Amino acid sequence: MSPAHETKTTLAAELKIIPAVAYLVAGVWLVFCYSFLVPLILRDVRPKPGEPSLWLLNLLLVFAGLVLAAWLLMIFYVSADAKRRQMNRLLWTLLVIFIPNAIGFILYFVLRQPIARPCAKCATPVRPDFVFCPACGESLAPTCPGCHHGVEPGWAACAFCGARLA
Question: Could you tell me the pTM of the whole model?
Fold first, then answer.
């Protein structure tokens, strides 16, 4: 596999697939939280002796806002990543939104498909387990001349039909 179609990526490369609008939405959320919600919640708070101080409550609210902003970015990430992996984008985005306690995220990362690679002939994105391009019919991997199953380089015979390979 050529380096241009490498399936292992870095965190920086993965963060680049999140659309700019997602960062904008998360930023607007943080500004809204810290400009309106935190002051509104803390407006009438007068801690009594033995209760957490005001700075601790403020810190907890800031942390909650950051967690929700990260959750928004992850939703946009799943949507973009599902598209590039040729998975049902709407279904996975909705599952991530509505399945609680990050179980939707965990399911997505456990069940996601490998990154699609372009066909050498027509550049159509093709899943790595495909032997032929569904758009142009180009062979993407060595195949058996008898049964047309994919074969590994170096095999002397097809594991599916027993035909001798050249």
Answer: 0.70
